[in-house]
Amino acid sequence: ENACVDQSRLARAATMTAVFIWMVVLCVQWSIVHGASCKSPLIVAQTGPDAACNGGNMHYWPTNYSADQCHGWEARDWAWRRHKNSANNMRCTGNGTFSFVQYPETLDCSGEGTVKTISMQCKQDIPPVLHTKGIDLNCCDHPEACIVDNPEVSVQGSYIYLNGEPCDGQKNSGSKRATAAAIIVLVLGLLGAALYGYKHGWNNVVWKWMQGETHATIKGGDKGNKEEGDDDRRKLTAI
Predict the structure, then answer these.
(1) pTM above 0.70, yes or no
(2) Which contacts qualify for 98-104: CB closer than 8 Å, 24 or more apart?
(3) How far apart are CA 142 and CA 84, in angstroms?
């Protein structure tokens, strides 16, 4: 009999473990975005507040998009405010520089853009509190030296787009899909626990389930408590 009880407990523990693993796998799968194919040979630039370009965020720019293809990026600052930018007409100019047209607060290159140029020299950017310089422009002059990958911005929680569509294969803790998946799993877990607790009684429900006590045992205990209460009320009435 003890062997049967142990096997029953192991089966319940295994079931709970399998359900938890399945939920984790589901979250990971949903956090990997399947979208636009954005891979490109990349150049690298750095932007930051220092006037001598000592430190800042890295931006890995695509170099082989057509003039009308729109590279978008989105990130949140320290106050959790969301910032959106996009650019098109990205090209190596042939004189050691890289140019593009940037559009603020949009991911689809709509509105009025500003022409910008990146070189190996540190230059004041727009807005003027920022300064930008090229870190690796070799891809412009030596295609065989190019890094080929998805464009990227080295800001935690950043997200990359092509023509307004998320790039394929992004794994990002700040992504909307990862957040949505985590919320869905949490809500479903809480709902399941609430329904089970409401049906069977909240007191040590999980522990009783792990110990192998059945629904009938729990209900039987509740029934016994109810009968004891009825006996007490009858005694008080007789007095």
Answers:
(1) no
(2) 98/43, 98/45, 98/61, 98/63, 98/134, 98/137, 98/140, 100/61, 102/126
(3) 31
3-state SS, residue 60: strand
Q: Which two tokens stand for residue 74?
A: 């989105």
Helix (H) or strand (E) holding 183: helix 176-200
Give the torsion sign (CA, 193, 196, 202, 203): negative
Read off the pLDDT of residues 1-30 as tens digits, 9 standing for 90 and up.
545 545 565 565 566 666 666 666 555 555
Question: Tokens 């593009």 correspond to what residue?
Answer: 100
| Alpha carbon distance 44, 152 (integer Å) | 9
How high is the pLDDT of residue 69?
A: 97
Contacts 24+ apart (CB under 8 A), 198-206: none
Res. 157: pLDDT tops 60: yes
Pairing type for strands 123-124 and 71-76 reads unpaired
List CB contacts of 1: < 8 A, sequence separation 6 or more.
none
How do residues 57-77 score in pLDDT, each as one tens digit? 999 999 999 999 999 999 877
